[in-house]
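Homework help board

Subject: predicted structure for assignment chain

Our instructor gave us this sequence and asked us to write out the predicted structure in C-alpha cell form, then describe one feature. I got the C-alpha cells but I'm not sure how to describe them. Can anyone check?
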Amino acid sequence: MQTIHVGLIGLGTVGTGVVQILQQQADLIAGRLGARLVLKRVATRHPERARAVQLPAAQLTGDAMEVLQDPEIAIVVELIGGYEPARTYLLTALQQGKHVVTANKALLARHGRELFQTATALRRDIGFEASVGGGIPIIRTIKEGFVANQFLSISCIINGTTNYILSKMSDQGQDFQDVLREAQALGYAEADPSFDVDGIDAAQKIALLASLAFGSWVPSEAIYTEGITGVSQLDIAYARELGYRVKLLAMAKMAGSHLDVRVHPALVAADSWLANINGVYNAISLRGDKVGRNMLIGRGAGALPTGSAVVGDVVDVARNILHDSSGRVPPQAYQDHSLQDVPLQDMDEVVCKYYLRFQVADQPRVLAAIAGILGEHAISLESVLQKGREHVPGAPVSVVMMTHEARERSIRKALLAIATLPTILGKTMRLRVEETEEE
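My C-alpha cell output:
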C-alpha cells in the first residue's frame, strides 16, 4: 500500500487532536483512502515538553523549516494560528511543491486571496475545512455539495463562546460578567475574550463563507461587526416576553447588486431552529435556490471535532495526490475567471425590524415624545412594552418598543434625536430583529 507523508506545524490543542486521530484511526483511514498516511515530522516550539500524545523524539523538531524542506513530505498541516509566521510557512510549503491544510481562519480572512491564488498558480491544494465551524463540514458543503445552487442567504451561530454566554443568560437568568467568568473557568473563553465577545471571530468566519458562497472576496475588516457586551439580562428577559431569544448572528445575503454581510446580536423567534441552538454548539443555515434551506449543527471547536475536519482535509488532498487530480476543486469554489468584486452593502441601507429599550424618567408624555420622533423618521411601531413603576420615587423605568421594518439610517438618526430629550436617562439599547425563514 502506498504511503503519503504528512508534516505538522503546531502541537497545541488541535494539533494534539490531529495526532490522536491519525494514530487511533490509521487502519480506518487507510481502508477508505487506499494509502497509508504517515506523520513524518512535527514542529513545535517546545519539542521536549510532555504531551497527551506519544511521539518518538526523532519525530519532533523545534524548527518548522525541517518540515517545510523535507522532500518526502507531501502535505503540510499548519496549526499554529495567527498571521505570521503562519502565512510565510504556508507560502513556503506551496512553493516547495507541497499541498497544505490549515485551520487558521484569521489568516485566511486576511490573506486568503493571496494563499488561494498561489495554490491555484502552483496547482496545489489548500484545505481549510476546520477554519469555520470546527467539525461541521460547511466548507465542503458550499464548495461541492451545493455546487448546483445559487446561494440566497447564510445565517450562522458560529462562535461557541458567545452562544454559551447568551444561552446561560437566557436559560438561567445570569448576568453577562458572571457567565463570562464561568466560561473562562471551563475553557470556553480565553483570558482575553474580546476576540469572541466583540464579534471578531464570527466576522472572520462569515467573511470566508460569504467569499465561497458568492464568489466575491469579502474582507473581514469591512464587515459591520457588533459584539454582545452590551446585552443585559434586562434585554434577555424582555426578548423572552416578546417571544424571542437573543443570539449573535453572522449573516450574508445578496441585497440587489450589493452583498449584505454583518455580525451582530439579534432577536430571533423563540420557536425557530437558530433560537434553539444552545451551549457551545454552532449552527449554519444555508438557503439555496434549488435545495431550499439546510442547517448544519455541531461542535464548533475542540481538539477532536476540529482535528476530525483537519484530517478530513488531509485525506481529501491525499486522494487528489493518488489520482493526480490536484486543483480539482478551486480554493474559492469558483474558477478564477468567474470571481467578481461585489460591493458590500452600507449598513445604513439595511432594513429590518428593531427592538428599542429606553431608560426614561417616569413622567407624562414621555412615550408620546419618543413615538413622535420615530414617526418623523418614518418609523412605525408594532408594539410597546412598559413595566410598572418602581417603588423608588424618581427611579427610571424601561420602555421597550418593537418597530415595523425600518431603514438603519432612519433608526440611527431618530435615536440621536431621542437622546437629546431630557426625559431619556442613559443609553438606548437597540437590537435588530432577524426573521429566519423555516423551510
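Reply (TA_rk): Your C-alpha cells look well-formed. For the description, you could write something like this. The longest strand covers residues 244-255. That's the kind of observation they're looking for.
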